[in-house]
Request: fold
Amino acid sequence: MTVWAKFDRLIQEEDAGGSSAESQVSLSPVALLMDDLNRLLVSFQGNTEAWVSTEGGAREAVMFARAFNAGKRAHPIRDESRRVLLTRCPECSLKALMWMPPDTPRGRAIIVCKNPACGHHINEEQFEEQFEEVLNG
Reply:
């Protein structure tokens, strides 16, 4: 048996509160989250309705949903669009600019004016150049 075969889970309880050299492994927050989610799915047998029809299954399903949503917030898969603060649109002069993340891994982010009458858009590099000109101008 290898050293790693002893670890059927990422976290193991220690006897009498002590700590051994084996428990000193540094784990990433994502690995801990995945371990927690897998622990909550132990009683899941593939049928969601049957799982939540029991009190214990319903409790675990709610705990799983909470842990999953907290993990999604803490470790987002992709960036979300967000407002560009303190900067006005170069076309309509309203504070309605939104930063939009790239759609593809090698794509470019764009800045879009959310004013329906304007709709101006510019890529992030051009926006930064214009912003530098304003600051240094």
